[in-house]
Amino acid sequence: MISYKLSPHQQQVKDVVHWFAENEMRPLSMEADRLGKVPDDWLNKINQLGIQLNTSSFGDDKNGREKESGKKVKRERQANRLAVIATEELGWGDPAIALTLPGPGLGGPPVQSSGTPEQKQRFLSIFSKDEPPRWGAYALTEPEAGSDVSGIRTTAQKTAGGYILNGQKIFITNGARASWVVVFATIDRSLGRAGHRAFVVEKGTPGFSCTRLAKKMGIRASETAELLLEDCFVPEDNLLGGESYYENRGSSPSGFRVAMKTFDNTRPIVAAMAIGIARAAFEYTRDLVQKEYPKHGRFYHLASEKLACAELEIEAARLLTWEAAWKADIGQPNAQEAAMCKAYSGKIALEVCAGCLELLGPAGLDGQIVEKLYRDAKIFDIFEGTNQVQHLITARHLYEPYGVRV
Ligand SMILES: Cc1cc2nc3c(=O)[nH]c(=O)nc-3n(C[C@H](O)[C@H](O)[C@H](O)COP(=O)(O)OP(=O)(O)OC[C@H]3O[C@@H](n4cnc5c(N)ncnc54)[C@H](O)[C@@H]3O)c2cc1C
């Protein structure tokens, strides 16, 4: 059975990240939203301080050991749990700033899980406080392939020493500023998913460009790029996992599997950020109701009931998310739990923010944080797979014992 009590180490991570969220992110939050960007000097400062808070940076501690009562004991891997605990605090601070913190971002997990030792060293070692701030990115979505990623049309044509990539990617978080982007392409569309490959395309590669930054309703300070690949030569060394990674698996859908494996680890992290948003709106509203409204009045009772429901939803979402992260840590399949926590957290983030706005009335609008959180929450039931898609994944598991494919 999993214990829901945070260990001293987990509590310490939560406290440190919360301190950062409250003192470094919150003061910047409304201004970054208004500007539609996170100021460069702030990013430089954070990078120089060596603050490694990017959601994929909580490290792989599978060989970790810690001292307990004076003697060394083997510690269970807990990178995924630390990531969700910390990310909830970052989401509480500001989700758009959280997505812009320097680091490999969504590009990190596929390199970590499928890269060769040489690729991991080459692409992941560039994120250091002694270097300027750097980012990684993950480019799967295309104009014709969003939820149905099997439909990607970006092509990778084999040539001497590498591949020629052609295609378009849209909605890519940090895609313009990234030092490298994990780009998914197909070597042969007739092979379906088995034809998918993942490439690490480096910034400055001829034929690789950003054509537009999207204007958005929420998470405005987070950069969302459209990328174009025009006869873009990518060396063999940048094929994620190397040629043998795909050859050894015969006709199995390896590139597709890289994409899906990434989601099983990242969906709980996205869920945690949504929970942080819901908690931020809830806490702001709870404190204001306590301060401003006469106790025991009719409104106070109404508000208490609504706030109690919000707290219940937040706690339920958190427990689902922790379970998905825990399963990832102990190496158990977690696709279903990852889909459920993502769907539920995205849904409740929107509902809690909407409920808080209703309670606050005019006090919640016009440049106030809850109005911004409401706008920010929407994307959490879209990216990393929409809610409907998470329900499909869950339904697939439901029907599996009956041999029915959904
Ligand atoms: C701000 C932002 C940042 C993003 N960052 C990234 C990133 O870094 N990298 C990346 O690769 N992508 C990124 N995305 C893309 C995101 O993952 C996609 O938008 C998402 O997967 C949905 O795809 P779509 O927009 O094409 O919608 P569609 O797939 O066209 O879906 C439209 C609607 O149809 C529903 N639908 C689709 N198929 C089904 C079905 N089979 N059954 C029931 N309903 C269905 C969907 O749920 C949705 O409501 C980002 C998007 C945004 C907006």
UniProtKB/TrEMBL annotation:
UniProt keyword Membrane, yes or no: no
UniProt domain Acyl-CoA oxidase/dehydrogenase middle: residue ranges: 137-232
Annotated keywords: FAD, Flavoprotein, Oxidoreductase
Cofactor requirements of the protein: FAD
Compositionally biased tracts (Basic and acidic residues): 59-76
Short name of one Pfam family: Acyl-CoA_dh_M
Region annotation (Disordered) ranges: 54-76
Signal peptide range: none
Database matches in InterPro entries: Acyl-CoA_DH_CS, Acyl-CoA_Oxase/DH_mid-dom, Acyl-CoA_Oxase/DH_mid-dom_sf, AcylCo_DH-like_C, AcylCo_DH/oxidase_C, AcylCoA_DH/ox_N_sf, AcylCoA_DH/oxidase_NM_dom_sf
Transmembrane segments: none
Source superkingdom: Bacteria
Domain Acyl-CoA dehydrogenase/oxidase C-terminal: 254-398
Assigned protein family: Belongs to the acyl-CoA dehydrogenase family.
PANTHER family in the cross-refs: ACYL-COA DEHYDROGENASE, ISOVALERYL-COA DEHYDROGENASE, MITOCHONDRIAL-RELATED
Name of protein: Acyl-CoA dehydrogenase
Source organism of this protein record: Kroppenstedtia guangzhouensis
